[in-house]
């Protein structure tokens, strides 16, 4: 059977809802509509089946149950979101011997908190967004993996693959805004696993400095990775490698843009000139050095020019005109809390907009504050970046490391839903400014308080 996903990519089209309805269903096709359960379809499916998932926000964690399945989001990642925020698990789990041909196409994957495993000898929480282990294989194509891990995950905030028989292929994916405590905020391959990265963009991920600060892609000793026509840039700390405690595996890189550089044919270490890195718009600007810098033997782009480096998916988290500004206060653990977001602040369509913050003091409390204008007001030896009057969402616990040692493993996540925006009379075109306030009892200035940086965005129809 010709892969439906591959057919879409080769045609250069995103399958619309109307087109999806014209697909002739067979005994091996399972259709999931918004409001239904994808996991229920997985339970019913057999090896070789396809699951066609229509537009919607799916609040569940998926386990492929050892089956070789194609999961296809017919409307693409912009309109089809897997969110495991309330599930206490990875968003997608393939750890039961899933064979070659298992794949996900066109999903946004967020809200995963990983799974406690002892793959590396001691218990670690791994695989926030996607977990692949135990001789399993999974291809992720044209997916967006964002907002996973952070304070809940030790290794592999976005994607984690472990084991000599395990393999993950990332094709034309965007992986951003994920985090971990010990390394691989974006991706981690360990324990003999293989990672294949093709035409992907991995940016703006985070890892704690205690793990060596490798926040983009970690390839541990015994693991292998091939990275081709991809961009690893703007991750906090190192973009590629492994922390000393893990050791570095075999990494082959070609025709890619790697922050800090990497030996290989056609590689470069230059600013890729995303349209808006801080605003999470990872499309290449017209003058980007990554344009037409791909492998000369690769298929040309749709405009007939040489292939580019990085993901070709026309994806942007920038809808809403985001602007990050106003420096964060350095907290007692030496970190500056970093605000981030997932989804789009829209009044219609998929209701998926969230604001989060990482690098907070663990085991304390904080809250999202917001208002209608930017500011830079001196406040507790920091900057209050929201012009009063300030609106505060509910106080939340930062969680993080529970050993009693103060560190930056705390994290907060707050929904900014369509009903909430409507209830606050936020109409299309309204400009909103948001920042996180949190407790920092050990701060040397005696205030006991710290603030993150801030973001402004526009509510869209």
Q: What does this entry look like structurally?
A:
The chain is mainly β and 461 residues long. It folds into two domains: 20-284, Pectate Lyase C-like, CATH 2.160.20; 323-458, Immunoglobulin-like, CATH 2.60.40. The chain has four helices and 41 strands.
What's the short story on this structure?
Helix content is about 5%, strand content about 35%. The longest helix is centred in the N-terminal third of the chain and has 8 residues, at about 5-10.
Which features does this protein show?
Pectate Lyase C-like, disordered N terminus, 461 residues, eight-stranded parallel β-sheet, 6% helix, globular, 41 strands, 4 helices, Immunoglobulin-like, 2 domains, mainly beta, nine-stranded parallel β-sheet
Helix content bin? under 10%
CATH architecture of the largest domain: 3 Solenoid
Distance between the termini: 40 Å
Q: Whole-number radius of gyration?
A: 21 Å
Could you tell me the number of beta strands?
41
Please list the strands of the largest sheet in the order they lie side by side. Answer: 1-2-5-8-13-16-20-24-27
| CATH C-level name of the largest domain | Mainly Beta
How confident overall, as mean pLDDT? Answer: 88
Number of domains: 2
What fold name stands as the CATH topology of the largest domain? Pectate Lyase C-like
Q: What share of residues are in beta strands?
A: 35-45%
Low-confidence stretches: 1-27
* Total of helices: 4
Overall structural class, as computed from helix and strand content, comes to mainly beta
For the largest beta-sheet, the strand count, sense and barrel status come to: 9 strands, parallel
């Amino acid at each position: 059977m010709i892969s439906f996903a591959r057919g879409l990519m080769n045609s250069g089209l995103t399958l619309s809802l109307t087109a999806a309805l014209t697909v002739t269903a067979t005994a091996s096709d399972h259709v999931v509509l918004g409001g239904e359960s994808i996991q229920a379809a997985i339970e019913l499916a057999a090896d070789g089946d396809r699951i066609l998932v229509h537009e919607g926000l799916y609040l569940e964690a998926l386990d492929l149950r050892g089956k070789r399945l194609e999961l296809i989001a017919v409307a693409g990642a912009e309109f089809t979101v897997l969110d495991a925020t309330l599930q206490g698990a990875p968003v997608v789990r393939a750890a039961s011997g899933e064979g070659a041909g298992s794949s996900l196409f066109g999903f946004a994957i967020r809200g995963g908190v990983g799974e406690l495993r002892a793959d590396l000898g001691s218990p670690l929480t791994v695989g926030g967004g996607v977990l692949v282990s135990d001789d399993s294989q999974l291809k992720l194509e044209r997916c967006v993996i964002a907002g996973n891990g952070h304070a809940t995950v030790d290794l592999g905030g976005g994607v984690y693959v472990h084991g000599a028989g395990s393999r993950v292929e990332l094709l034309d994916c965007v992986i951003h805004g994920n985090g971990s405590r010990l390394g691989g905020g974006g991706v981690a391959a360990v324990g003999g696993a293989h990672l294949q990265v093709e035409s992907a963009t991995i940016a703006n991920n985070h890892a704690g400095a205690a793990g060596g600060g490798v926040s983009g892609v970690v390839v541990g000793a015994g693991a292998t990775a091939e990275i081709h026509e991809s961009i690893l840039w703007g991750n906090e700390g190192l973009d590629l490698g492994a922390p000393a405690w893990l050791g570095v595996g075999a990494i082959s890189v070609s025709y890619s843009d790697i922050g800090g550089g990497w030996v290989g044919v056609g590689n470069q270490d230059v600013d890729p000139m995303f349209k808006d890195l801080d605003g999470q718009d990872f499309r290449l600007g017209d003058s980007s050095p990554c344009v037409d810098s791909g492998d000369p033997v690769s298929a040309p782009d749709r405009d007939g020019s040489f292939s580019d480096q990085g993901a070709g998916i026309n994806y942007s988290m920038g809808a809403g005109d985001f602007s990050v500004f106003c420096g964060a206060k350095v907290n007692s653990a030496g970190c500056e809390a970093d605000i981030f977001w997932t989804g789009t602040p829209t009044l219609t369509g998929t209701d998926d907009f969230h604001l989060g913050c990482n690098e907070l003091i663990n085991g304390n409390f904080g809250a999202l504050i917001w208002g209608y204008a930017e500011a830079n007001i001196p406040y507790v030896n920091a900057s209050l970046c929201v012009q009063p009057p300030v609106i505060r969402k509910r106080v939340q616990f930062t969680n993080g490391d529970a050993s009693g040692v103060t560190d930056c493993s705390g994290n907060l996540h707050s929904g900014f839903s369509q009903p909430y925006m409507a209830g606050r009379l936020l109409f299309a075109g309204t400009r909103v400014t948001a920042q996180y306030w949190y407790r920092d009892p050990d701060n040397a200035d005696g205030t006991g308080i710290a603030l993150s940086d801030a973001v402004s965005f526009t509510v869209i129809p």
